[in-house]
From TrEMBL:
It comes from Streptomyces triticirhizae. NCBIfam families: PRK07582.1 (NF005758). Transmembrane segments: none annotated. Its cofactor is pyridoxal 5'-phosphate. Keywords: Lyase, Pyridoxal phosphate. The lineage of its organism: Bacteria, Bacillati, Actinomycetota, Actinomycetes, Kitasatosporales. Pfam families: Cys_Met_Meta_PP. This is Cystathionine gamma-lyase.
Amino acid sequence: MTGDGTRAVRAGLPAVEAYQPPMPPPVLAAHYHLPGDPAEAPFGYGRENNPTWVALERAIAELESPGPEDGARALVFPSGMAAISATLLSLTRPGDSVVLPSDGYQIWPRLRQRAEERGVRTHTAPTGGNGQLAALRAARERGERVRLLWLETPSNPGLDVCDIARLAREAHAQGALVAVDNTLATPLGQRPLELGADLSVASGTKALNGHGDVLLGYVAARDPELVDEIRQWRTVLGAIPGPLEAWLAHRGLATLQLRVARQAENALAVARALAARPEVTGLRHPGLPEDRDHALAARQMRFFGCVVSFTLPDREHAERFLAALRLVDDATSFGGVRSTAERRGRWGGDAVPEGFVRLSVGIEDPDDLVADIRRALDAAAP
């Protein structure tokens, strides 16, 4: 198998053809010429398929696949939540049980409510420790039919890590599927399918695209039946991405390895600088050797991600810090080439202290970022 950088540059591209662009332009079409039997047509109607999606899906599948002989298939969506919702709701039925992260993305409680309205029993457990394992075993002891275990590792925003391989073995022993939200790690930082998961789901809005200009989501799996089930859901609900967004995301993949590697290096430099500050508590980054999940993360991750989280003494202190930054924008989301940070408690959906900051480290020069953060911390002091 070729290296990650080579795979990212070449992923999903068509065979070389004389006088044609190496990457075809986006196909803007609501319908296609459709003679004969529609079942034999590769493209018939815009809600069902698009050549630009196909190229991006092929590229993502190549990056998520454990190996060339064990290929995955991928489906793209107009946002990460569209991909998550389609996966959860298409694969569960009334009477099923699911185990979900209690410390995952803040929209999860609302999605849980939708699942429960459809007759699905939901249980939550924290990412760190043995909470998810205990939740699985408790459901089995109650005689529940667990359909799906959902993992988010590292978790957002707390950056806890769980053992994908161990949890996958436990879930499969109960006949449950395992889905992993791989947004923070990206397929170059972690391959859930290689670790035993059935589905790898992510918000392509973040590091996969990396430029802060596209909303996108995807799901990848090796089982074609799972992919077909989710595809039907996408077609019926019309949760389809625009071809221009798909094209932009595919174009951005060429630099994915460079961006992910640089962001991981920068994030570690920033985390080390923060570790030296007395006003900083609760510092988390899986790449720090002293992080409680570092040993586990090192076993299953190749890059430790771009996010650093930490807590300042109170809300006002955090807001002064954010206002004093010059190279780090006060914005939500993460994974972009430009560094961003926010006081996560302003949204109200995460169980974090008022002074909790989620910092997404970009690809700027690390010395400049560290200097800016140190200067802002000095300026924020009471």
